[in-house]
Amino acid sequence: MPYTLLNEHKFKRICNQERFKEANQPRFDRLTRREMEIASLVVQGYKSLQIAEELFISRYTVEQHRKNVNRKLRVHSHSELVQYALAFDLV
Predict the structure, then answer these.
(1) What backbone phi and psi angles, to 5 degrees, belong to 86?
(2) Distance of CA 6 to CAs 3, 19, 65, Å?
């Protein structure tokens, strides 16, 4: 890809990400600090048991936080959660 085409692609991606962030800021603001922490770990590929061990909480607590994150953000897939994580600098 020529340099100018690459820059144009990057510029469009950043603009789309900023529009997404602006449109979804109210939903994201509803997350607690712990929910953001768990969302970040999920996006990084951690499983519930690994998150529980990392944060010294029960697996069931992690699963409840994950449900809360999905409900508050209205996400139904991992890729939707990744979109939030990238837009809101969770990773």
Answers:
(1) -70, -45
(2) 5, 20, 38
Q: Which amino acid is at 69?
A: V
For residue 49 the two structure tokens come to 């048991």
Tokens standing for 37? 């922490």
Q: What is the pLDDT along the chain (91 residues), one digit of tens a residue?
A: 566 766 888 888 889 999 999 999 999 999 999 999 999 999 999 999 999 999 999 999 999 999 999 999 999 999 999 999 999 999 8
Separation between Cα atoms, residue 37 and residue 44, nearest integer Å: 11
